[in-house]
Amino acid sequence: MTDLSVEVCGLRLRNPTMLASGVLDETSKSMLVAARAGVGAIVTKSVGMDPRPGHPNPTVVELDDGLLNAMGLPNPGIELFSNEIREAKKGGVPIVGSVFGGTEEDIAELAARIVKAGADAVELNLSCPHAKGLGAEIGSSPDRVESICRLTKKRTRAPVLAKLTPNTSSIADLARAAEKGGADGLVAINTLKGMVIDPEARMPILGNKFGGLSGPAIKPVGVRCVYEIFVAVDLPIIGVGGIATGRDAVEYIMAGASAVQIGTAVWVHGMGVFSRVCKDMVKFMKDNDYKSVSDMVGVAHPG
Description:
Layout: E1 6-8, E2 11-13, E3 17-19, H1 28-36, E4 41-43, E5 60-63, E6 66-69, H2 78-88, E7 95-99, H3 104-116, E8 121-125, H4 136-139, H5 142-155, E9 160-163, H6 171-180, E10 185-188, E11 192-195, E12 197-198, E13 203-204, E14 210-214, H7 219-232, E15 237-240, H8 246-255, E16 259-262, H9 264-269, H10 273-287
Helix pairs in contact: 1-2, 3-5, 5-6, 6-7, 7-8, 8-10
């Protein structure tokens, strides 16, 4: 019998798919829809200490092979968002609270508060490429990644996952820093920093000029990053970037991921993408004599 259930950082998932942060996860209503659609776990919208309006429009550009977005981390702040998490818990799947901040202290405090609200684990957004003073701007330094993870682990007993940026010379160094700081797991990758110009208008399309590229275009980068991290550290990895089919998910898993997150494909194909990915995976596993997801983790590595 083919078994899609997985355990990642102490979280039991009915299947290895997770709703990625930033896509239909800002309200309890949308998160409950994801739970009913068959997702294994839900990562919330990234939340800060105070309400944040985000960047001015336009904030999203649709491309042939993905999306370029510069939302700017809009959110209602931790106090109001705590109510959404409490309601979303009724969906019966693990909730991972995503947090961001400009200082180690803010991030650690937010982690503690989001767990208190009911989150089963915390994802540290150390990788957003289009928010000044936040995300990748602090997550590109191994020293800061280590100190953020260490302080956060002192504030909460819940699993802490560090979401790493690909906009770096060595994502393996960031992974090692997170491991040294006590992180329980890693998420790779966030979006790649990009830009689109309107030739007729002779100006960038996005209101923020720069944005984060997601979708099929970044999948080879994400798979490569997971592959490199797998040999650098001894931590569970959750793969993200361009996953829309079961075969995409299997690539990440064979590179070393224990689970995968799906975001842009939800935007493009709707919530039904989770069940389709799982159906594809079951067929692949049966055709290739894999009994469980864990049997495939890291098999693309020699030896």
